[in-house]
Amino acid sequence: GTLCEHVECFSFLSNDSSVCAGHGLCVGEDHCACSQGYTGSACEFPICNGVPSNDTNAVCDGRGNCSNPDVCECSQGHSGQFCNLNVCFGIFSNETSTACSGFGNCTSPDQCSCVDGFAGEECQHSYCFGV
């Protein structure tokens, strides 16, 4: 301000609602103290499950985007709070009694790995002695 009572953080005055991306306080020149759930020099990155949103290979299990603290927007074929579940033919991978007909594991979206004795896209066919 005119009497130097407001410090600047990344071109925003400390009393501007947009300072520190609206997710922190400007506590010194270009130094933001981020609110819980945000990180980055200007508090511009939300954190999901302890991983900053700019770590795109790790945040939301590498299967989605972190839009707000602990809020993942999962890519198609993935689900769960942190996108850690695959979806096989509309069923979450942790629903072991129904995913892959209960006779396999949902290893990636719409991909079942069947137990011995079962085959088919959803492990829906049983066979005996390789028949």
From TrEMBL:
Keywords: Disulfide bond, EGF-like domain. Gene3D superfamilies: Laminin. InterPro entries: EGF. Disulfide bonds join 34-43, 114-123. It comes from the Eukaryota. Pfam families: EGF_Teneurin. Residues 5-44, 92-124 form the EGF-like domain. PROSITE patterns: EGF_1 (PS00022), EGF_2 (PS01186), EGF_3 (PS50026). This is EGF-like domain-containing protein.
